[in-house]
Amino acid sequence: MNKHERENTIKIQTNFASNGTPTDPLGHEVYITVKRPDGTDLVPKTLASRESTGVYYYIFNTTDDDLLGIYTCIWECVQPIGGPTAPPIVQRETFQLVSLY
Question: How far apart, in whole angstroms, are the C-alpha atoms of residue 38 and residue 73?
Answer without folding.
Answer: 13
